[in-house]
Design brief:
Blueprint (H helix, E strand, L loop, with lengths): L15 E2 L2 E2 L8 E4 L18 H7 L7 E4 L15
Parallel strand pairs: 3-4
Antiparallel strand pairs: 1-2
Length: 84
């Protein structure tokens, strides 16, 4: 099986179109956060986590995971830590 693109090593700075990142070029998972989401969200775009800490807990250290906060999210954060 050969390469599927002319860029077999990917894009080390990601890819964006008009400033919007194309997320499937990143090596890790993408988690979404929106305080207006479902109370039992899964971190997906359709069912985002409601607080940042849930997204941090879902991330795996050094794997390139990304957290995106949706516009309109509101949360008071006194501290946030990633648990390994």
């Amino acid at each position: 099986m050969g390469n599927f693109s002319n860029y077999p090593n990917g894009f080390n700075r990601g890819v964006s179109i008009r400033g919007i990142p194309i997320l499937n070029t990143y090596s890790g998972n993408t988690y979404w956060v929106d305080s207006r989401g479902a109370s039992n969200g899964e971190g997906t775009f359709q069912r985002p986590f409601v607080i940042l800490q849930l997204a941090l807990n879902a991330c795996t250290a050094s794997k390139g995971d990304m957290i995106i906060i949706k516009a309109g999210h509101a949360e008071t954060i006194s501290s946030a830590t990633m648990q390994e």
